[in-house]
Amino acid sequence: MPVEKLTARRPEIGADELITTLVPPPRFDGVRFSTYVPNPDEPSQAAAVEACSAFAERVRQAGAQRSGWRALFGRKQADPGKPGLYLDGGFGVGKTHLLASIWHEVPEPKSYGTFVELTHVVGALGFAEAVRRLSGHRLLAIDEFELDDPGDTMLVNRLLRELTDAGVYVAATSNTLPDKLGEGRFAAEDFLREIQALSAKFSVVRVDGPDYRHRGLPKPPDPLTDDELVASAEARPGATLDDFDALCDHLASLHPSRYGRLVDGVSAVHLRGVRPAPDQAIALRLVAFADRLYDRAIPVLVSGGSPAELFTPEMLAGGYRKKYLRAVSRLTALARDAAESPAVPG
Description:
Layout (H helix, E strand, L loop, with lengths): L14 H6 L22 H31 L10 E6 L5 H11 L4 E5 H11 L1 H8 L4 E5 L6 H16 L3 E6 L17 H8 L2 E6 L18 H10 L4 E4 H9 L6 H5 L5 E6 L5 H16 L4 E5 L8 H4 L4 H19 L7
Parallel strand pairs: 1-4, 1-5, 2-3, 3-4, 6-7, 7-8
Helix pairs in contact: 2-3, 4-5, 6-7, 9-11, 11-13
């Protein structure tokens, strides 16, 4: 039976699904504050758990007050403090775990999505309709917050201003402090007022530490031969097998918000002929693709080059360095998962 190809899939997401599907990905279904294990050598991690737990409780209490005051007086009670919590730190320190834990602690209605998914919601629904649908929520959780262009800066600043004015709390993760968003990627100084207005809405919680995915672990497995890759794909029900260049072309034809749906239900992804991304546009699509694979804990097997070689030294020296390093970290973890599976030939 032929192995399925991701390039044969063209997922669609209806407008009505865009809000209802804003929930944590499967990897983070079961996470809670109690399941986060702080590194004892990094006191900021334990402090972050306390800060996030306190923020979640504040959102819970504000939601109850908001409902009660609206029922009595038709307006919300003023709430002290900043409406946003911003988790800043390197990759692999558990920021997404903490963000999902906040989401799980807060009662409905609430939303959780990546920055890319959020901007797609606004683009698909229109700004006014997105605000209308989200403004009744207690919490908006935004993972991988990043401003890659001036349009996103203006859009998100306006969206968060509208939502926080309506009483919505916002929690976000990023590898970049809010007043440094966009730095190295566009002329951030031209939009400094917008960026400062955005950062003023957040209390920053720092999460330090080494990447937990590689703490004390051996180096990633070597790439398979093409024959081994095909044998592995054929031995795994639900696996896919694609040529790397063909997949890159396919990703370019889909909005990144669809990448999660692209790999839903896949047991393992096999990529033949992996090589360094030829340009930055492709590299950034691969980052988004790697994030969705990691969210769903889908093992990755490759032939040709290693996932660690996807991004050139020039890319790693540029403004997207942290994104690329996060993608390498996550793909390496998924390659290890695949190597530990009994379906790997050898």
